[in-house]
Amino acid sequence: xxxxLVEDDPKLGPHLQKDLQGRxxxxxxxxxxxxxxxxxxxxxxxxxxxxxxxxxxxxxxxLKAWRRESLSTPVLILTARDxxxxxxxxxxxxxxxxxxKPFHFEELVExxxxxxxRANGRATPVLEVGSLKLDEAGQSVILVGGTSHSLTGTxxxxxxxxxxxxxxxxxxxxxxEHVYEFDAxxxxxxxxxxxxxxxxxxxxxxxRTLRGQGYMFDGGPA
Length: 222
Prior knowledge:
4-stranded antiparallel sheet, single chain, alpha/beta, 40% helix
């Protein structure tokens, strides 16, 4: 899952980016409201963390601009401003959730996971498609019979996105946009490498190749 982190604290921003990457997210970090507004509109993020107190443009104005452009990406406001009036303003601007600083990282992770589940119409932390289950907390895939396989960060992000879109044709460029950060190696051949890795773990036929179009995930019967 690809995440936009908008945070101007020079210590907190990079620290959060690293910790969220360790939880399976591809994270793009910016401290600029203007840049965040552009990135949010141009990149298909799965979720956004937005600080309100940005140096060049207030976070609420950035959020309002996104919503005016019909950007439906879930947005979690992360800020030191914790008065109820500011929370109401954040929700009125289009926020989906609100977490005040200081905060516990585990709570942030769970709130992000809940927002992503809600956006995809799910209620439980285990993503299940057909006979396959993806344990988000453990970043592992559970096969028929209960066998569990741990996944690398990229394997997890790729399988997560495939399982969120079963039966859909997903091009290499679409997968790349949701799996990699801006500064990552985006050679389309890398996607092929990770598809091959996943196929070695999953039962035959779950990830289909449609020549000239991309890939399709089929979890098979439940």
